[in-house]
Amino acid sequence: MGSLSALERPLQYPIARRDDIIIDDYHGVKIADPYRWLEDPDDEEVKGFVQEQVKLTESVLQICDAREKLREKITKLFDHPRYYTPFKRGNKYFYFHNTGLQAQDVLYVQESLEGEPKVLLDPNGLSEDGTVSLNTLSLSEDAKYLAYGLSTSGSDWVTIKVMRVEDNIVEADTLNWVKFTGISWTHDSKGFFYSRYPAPKYVSTFLNELRWGCSLSRHNDIDRCFGEFNRLELLTALNFSYLSVSLLCREGENLDAGTETNANLYHELCYHFVGTDQSEDIQCWRDSENPKYMFGAGVTDDGKYLLLYISENCDPVNKVYFCDMSAFHDGLEGFKGGNALLPFIKLIDDFDAQYQEIANDDTVFTFLTNKDAPRYKVVRVDLKEPSSWIDVVPESENDVLESAFAVNGDKMIVCYLSDVKYVIQIRDLKTGSLLHQLPTDIGSVTGISARRRDSTVFIGFTSFLTPGIIYQCNLDSKVPDMKIFREISVPGFNRSEFQVNQVFVPSKDGTKIPMFIVAKKNIMLDGSHPCLLYAYGGFNISITPSFSVSRIVLTRHLGSVFCIANIRGGGEYGEEWHKAGSLARKQNCFDDFISAAEYLVSAGYTQPKKLCIEGGSNGGLLVGACINQRPDLFGCALAHVGVMDMLRFHKFTIGHAWTSDFGCSDNEEEFGWLFKYSPLHNVRRPWEQHPEQPSQYPSTMLLTADHDDRVVPLHSLKLLATMQYILCTSLKNSPQNNPIIGRIDCKAGHGAGRPTQKLIDEAADRYSFMAKMVDASWTE
Length: 780
Hints:
alpha+beta, Rossmann fold, Neuraminidase, eight-stranded mixed beta sheet, five-stranded antiparallel beta sheet, 13 helices, 17% helix
């Protein structure tokens, strides 16, 4: 069985109102949604619910003995200088650096690698609490200008500014309502391409009297539950009858960007001229007939072509159009003030594969693609003969070709993922033939800084026991060597204290699932150790070895074993591995994770009451589903910013893009898949499911943040209210003694851009909760 409560007495949970008249009809299946009102972040009742949960969680954390010790140790280990891979633009070098506990990393510039570094952009001066972060940046070809995007409180919304590199002067340019964008300069340094959405609409609805089929008891449900607001006909379509309705719509006004939940639709590609107002930007591409399409663009290395990448969801597939900018008689200025879009030519006009440009020689383009190659390959095409494609680097039999960069004129540096370990090779750009394989340890490539015109490449590397190394590689050498350019040292960390193993665990259907296990050296496999098991399993994303201060502290001082299971749904073995954990086969992810947990118990690393599972975003969904399916197997669960309402996720912000991995409840067949595992809809009392054995849910912490506009907080809030009601407050003497709590952060988002102190505080909170719940003892 799972955990026996670490608390002396059951918690007194706040009572959340249940609106039992909210019932939805999904293809003839009636499903109640009593906490629909928690979907409105601006509602005073929702704010009250959040404050009560914050107080409850703090009361639990105050009795977690390891909290302050963890905060102290994590802070101490975090306090070390960190450097990131340098990159060259013009004749200058740029890199990020953090002295240790700075809230945000600082961007530096050097005239040469040996030159005196100068601060170019320090985000720490942009807010008192460090919650303004750098989201994206791009330097003009001559390094005259820096265009950079700032995010506030972790929101995906970005404001783009422009700085002169020579004197750090910030221009007046301010580009708002930018999201999911890159920045790509034209080579004349006059401006850049970027992507944005129309400003979100703020809607205020006043209803003097409202009645409809299943009756919404609060007017905010109308405001927040539907993707597009400014449509009176929506009321009629949903069988509303009303006496008076007043809709007040204002675009972008009075919004705390990142707290709204309406769907992100009608992405557009724009071009901004430096020194002009955003209202004068050229609208380069849009598609009003396909509001869910998203657009990204890149200028080729020769400055001649603009490539347009079009996607409609998170699947690794895209369309590719190109535009010959050298053919513009008046340059991009000729499109000012007009309504004409750029004259793109379609190279790939269907969503059957992914294409990413590596290099071009005039009209001859080299791409990385998964076309008929689920583990990816390198191909070439001449724009003059767009139907004739040739393979340059064929698909590997076993390894995934993760990335490829053109370097040193006629070469490319490629990265393979081989059983979740990186392999780096130098290949001939024209023929694809292997020239050199660079020596690397087991670990991950964190960044490659390389341009075709440069002979020097910088490679960032990390692993579970390697805080960070930046290698410098001279490709002019007959045999390129991996010279250490910078190495990150963490005072007080000794890698010889730990061991790392990789095992392959058979899942329910026999598929071998790789798992890394990090522990103190020479531990006894007697089942006595606390254990933290982490996984993601979605969206073709690979979880590879990386260094974590907080998990090192957990292992060293709390005796924990830390594990990463590379379950299906990720990209560790290519697109087939991804598809094996998507859509109708999503249950494979949960089976893989459960099998990994069972292995850790059977192999003697831990026991159920000492096993904690953790995951974020799609991994939060994973944790939510697994505690529903096997509550007996875990002692503790940490679910970060999880997608928990699988029937309504597509209605909020960018959720519609996730239907490629999950499906959509609007489709009857897909509704069947989703309803079976949706965390919100599958909370059951285990003591009623299995009355023959004492059982309850593991101690659970759901983590979310008020500015998470990727996976909006309503997912965690609704599941929190549901679990507390079904397992705890609905019964007079519930067997559920393990706490069910929510950590709800303020001025924070999905995770990116979080200041250092917030990272430390959250780690101390969640791991002290884990330590208390699995009865882990602190040792120095």
